Structure formats: C-alpha cells, structure tokens
Amino acid sequence: MKAYVDKEACISCGLCESLCPDVFSLEDDTDGKAVAVDEELTDDNSDCAKDAASQCPTEAILIE
Ligand code: SF4
Description:
This protein is α+β, with helices and mostly antiparallel strands and 64 residues long. Helix content is 23%, strand content 19%. The chain contains two helices and four strands. The chain has helices spanning 15-19, 46-55, and strands at 3-5, 24-26, 34-36, 61-63. A two-stranded antiparallel ribbon has the order 1-4. A two-stranded antiparallel ribbon has the order 2-3. A hairpin with a 7-residue loop joins strand 2 and strand 3. The relative contact order is 0.35. Iron/sulfur cluster (SF4) binds at residues 5, 10-16, 24, 34, 56-58, 60-61.
C-alpha cells in the first residue's frame, strides 16, 4: 500500500503533513504542494495516511 498526492488538486493547506508527517511533506521544489514518501506504508503510518486522505479538503490523496 502506498500514498499518492495529486499535485493538480493539492492546495497546500498542510493538513496531511500535520496529521501524518512520516508520510506527507510540503516541498519547495513542488511549489509547496504535498508529496508522499515513495515507499510502502507501514503498520505504523498507514492509519494516519488514510486519515489524511479522508480529511484532505480537495480529495487529493490516493491510498492504494
Ligand atoms: Fe494538499 Fe490535501 Fe495535503 Fe492539503 S491535505 S496539503 S490539499 S494533499
């Protein structure tokens, strides 16, 4: 299971980074848009990643 961010949809609100900093971060080199780690989610961080996906205001996060 991995997390993906649709950069076109992301509005850089920072919520995902606040909820799940192990997975999401807002990066200068993507114009402040969120990026997800390019690694499989773990038992420790998958719950917060799913939480971020469900709370993202623009539904920009995909977990699959
Ligand atoms: Fe972007 Fe959604 Fe994360 Fe906000 S919660 S920074 S809109 S991906």
